[in-house]
Amino acid sequence: MRATIRNPRHVRRAARRRKRQAGMTLVEIMIVMAIIALIAGAAGFALIPQFTKAKVKQTSADAKTIASAAEMYMSENDDCPSVDQLVSSKTLKQTANTKDAWGNDYAVECNEDGAVVRSSGPDEQMGTDDDIQ
C-alpha cells in the first residue's frame, strides 16, 4: 500500500476552510436575533389584549361571587355589608379574591333588588364607562 503525500499548502487551505465553516459569523447571529425579536414582538402584540380580556372576565366573575355572598348576608342581617364584613362573617371564603385584577377594592351597593358589586375596571377610576359589575 502506498502512502499518499499531500501538499502542505492543500492541507493548510483545507484546515482554513474547515475553520471558517465551523462557527457562525456575527452577521448571521444578528439576523437570527432580529428574527426572534420580530416574532416576540408579534406575539406580545397579539397577547396583551387577551390578558386584558382575561382580567375583565375574572373581575366580573369575582364581582358576581361577592354579590351573591352579600345577598346571603343581607338575608340574615339588615345592613349592607362591605367585603371585609363578608370575609369576617365567613359568608365569603377567605381564599376568595377580595380585590379586582388591578388591585383595587370592590364597591358593594345595596338596594331593594339585592346587592351590586362594582370594580373600577382597567382605568382604575370609579364612575367611568369601563367599570365592571
Written description of the protein model:
With 133 residues, the protein is mainly alpha-helical. The chain has a domain of 76 residues. The protein contains three helices and two strands. A two-stranded antiparallel ribbon has the order 1-2.
Brief digest:
With 133 residues, this protein is mostly helical. The protein has helices at 8-22, 26-76, 83-88; strands spanning 107-111, 114-118. The protein has a domain at 49-124.
Low-confidence stretches: none
Give the overall silhouette.
Answer: rod-shaped
- Could you tell me how far the N terminus lies from the C terminus, measured between alpha carbons in angstroms? 92 Å
Number of helices: 3
**What is the chain-wise order of helices and strands?**
HHHEE
Helix/strand-derived category reads mainly alpha
Largest sheet: 2 strands, antiparallel
Q: What Rg is obtained from the alpha carbons, in whole angstroms?
A: 32 Å
Estimate what percentage of residues fall within beta strands.
5-15%
Strand order of the largest sheet: 1-2
> How much helical structure, as a percent, in the residues?
40-55%
